[in-house]
Amino acid sequence: MTRLGIIAGGGQFPKLIAEEAKKRGIFVAGCGFHNNTDESLSQIFDTFQILALGQLAKLIDFFKKNNVSHICFAGTINKPKALDIRPDLRAAKLIFSLKTKGDDALLRAILGEFEKEGFQCVSASRFLPSLKSPQGILTNRTIPQEILGDMRYGFPIAKSMGSYDIGQCIVVKNGMVIAVECLEGTDATLKRASELAGKGCIAVKVIKPIQDERIDLPSIGLKTIENLIQYNYAGLAIEANKTLFFDREEALALANKHGLHIIAL
Predict the structure, then answer these.
(1) Which CATH architecture has domain 132-264?
(2) pLDDT digit string (tens) for 159-203?
(3) I need a surface site. Which of 74, 152, 180, 247 has the fewest CB within 10 A?
């Protein structure tokens, strides 16, 4: 791999991947999206372009013109704003061909279009494998059995919901499902659940069973922990070796300070 194309969403992940790839002597072309991607990334990439969501033909042409051989997906796309997509002809044909239009189905279809053009897709996590959370209790306190019980209760349910390509996160409390992540995203789901059930909720976030790990992995970071604390959550369970944990040291220090329990199952 000498020339990498990064399909860049929001957050810090595209920047981290670009920096690591360039350390390895790889030419990096980045393509982001209006109202999602930080346009200051243009200072990091060797070449950079911003497009509107849905301009699939221009996205592919950009990487072709820069002789990119490998591509990776990094960063988040604001789901409600994605409803405003104005697809070009190629994207419209692709969307029309899909039986379902969940995140995973759409991303896998887009990946298929790139593979038809000869690009090889690689997981962004291969550049920074240390971002994947290790297994076990990540905070510094023993988790009470009632909290651990809710975590173990929610884990297979989250997996089941993911098999329908709905979302990666659910919220549980006292053996009941309080909220399921849909179009609004994880942060809004956490807020909605706290308004419904008050203090002591447990968030569970997992990879979908059908998910292509090269395209999308569940992720958490400092902002996630800040939200959990603000909304008076008791704990968070994530999937070990599959969940990207950004700013882990700082986030876990904050969780420990506020007594938030975190485990990777």
Answers:
(1) 3-Layer(aba) Sandwich (3.40)
(2) 999 888 888 999 999 999 999 998 888 999 999 999 999 999 999
(3) 152
